[in-house]
């Protein structure tokens, strides 16, 4: 089960908000929140590969 | 009676009577006529450079000369068994087409259709509404495959009941798509089914798409997308090569394709399809399979343009150098071995630490500072509960674990 936490971190370039996805097996994925939001938005959109399903 | 030295035509002897000359001449003429009827007239060739080839046994035919610079290759589907082709063959734009590169590990469950997500095998994206496993397998076949060692197995996990599409595909970057635009191409691949493959009639769906935008994602959908191929292949448990020929319009700037099983019922232990040797050729013929780079190091480098992982194969693998930024954070400069497609937008990691040659300080989190990163030099930060000394040099290392790794993603 994946767990997502958002952290604000003060970096050299200023304060950034990052999403850290815990995949539950000591493996993590980290990205800026803007990138995370984009992926989440795409996941809620119908996909082109559905066309290749046999009707 | 005398005969001619080469074809054995009957000729009059020197002592024959003149009165029999007419018959002798006619006999000889008929024999010559019969022989000449078996020969190819010179009118068969009409143009400088034409060749005489055979369409079948004892059936010669003209093979028109090709264009300047073209070379002649054997092609059993051509009328004469020969055809001219352009002197250069475009590299196969499908990366990791022989399933040789698995930087993320040779089995995985990543599953997403969002751009940049859902990758297990390098460059190959997976999506299924249930749970899936993608793994590297040996092809175990030197009869039906041209000595391709590995394939990808795309499996609906046993017990899954979702009957949505189980998809596996690749988005080709625009820079590698453009050479195929405006041309007729042949898409080819080798595939077979597992013993419990559940799709109706053992069908494997194949969709090939083109888009007018730049560097989109085929799963999510290209800008200005068009479906160039939407068909099925009938799988068996034995490897087969499938080919599809179609045209790509000149208005497109990006290509991608997806294999899809539409499963039925509840997944058994072997509800999977396997695929390898995926290739795109210009023209109407599938050429012998070849990878993009021709060498494993070249193929790996081509894949590292999109994703690079270090670690995962030893304890305390050092991945970058840096220093303490505060009591809780370090900065590390990480340089990928090849310039990446774009500045990475995400990292994945496990079991990282900062090391100052005395103490190993466990990292609780890590990330990329995109404001200070580029395509060939990345700024990775780590977060620690405590124990970091500001301004002290550190190296980024896996923390006493062969499972520790750092991955940089610039995937499409």
**Helical segment tally of chain B?**
3
* Beta-strand segment tally of chain A: 3
* Share of residues in helices of chain A: 10-25%
Class derived from helix and strand content of chain B: mainly beta
Structural class of chain A: alpha+beta
Walk me through the structure:
The mean pLDDT of chain A is 82. Chain A is an alpha+beta fold and 55 residues long. Chain A has a three-stranded antiparallel β-sheet. The N and C termini of chain A lie far apart (32 Å). Chain A has one helix and three strands. Chain B has 412 residues and is mostly beta strands. Chain B folds into four domains: 2-37, no CATH class; 42-85, no CATH class; 107-302, Galactose-binding domain-like (Jelly Rolls, Sandwich), CATH 2.60.120; 307-409, Immunoglobulin-like (Sandwich). Chain B has helices at residues 21-37, 174-177, 296-304; strands at residues 2-3, 10-11, 51-56, 59-63, 71-74, 82-85, 107-108, 125-127, 132-138, 150-156, 166-172, 184-193, 203-211, 226-234, 240-247, 254-261, 272-282, 307-311, 318-324, 329-334, 346-350, 352-355, 360-362, 365-368, 378-383, 393-398, 405-409. Chain B starts with a strand and ends with a strand. At the A-B interface, strand 1, strand 2, strand 3 and helix 1 of A face strand 13, strand 14, strand 16, strand 21 and strand 24 of B. Strand 3 (28-32) of chain A pairs antiparallel with strand 21 of chain B, so a sheet runs across the interface.
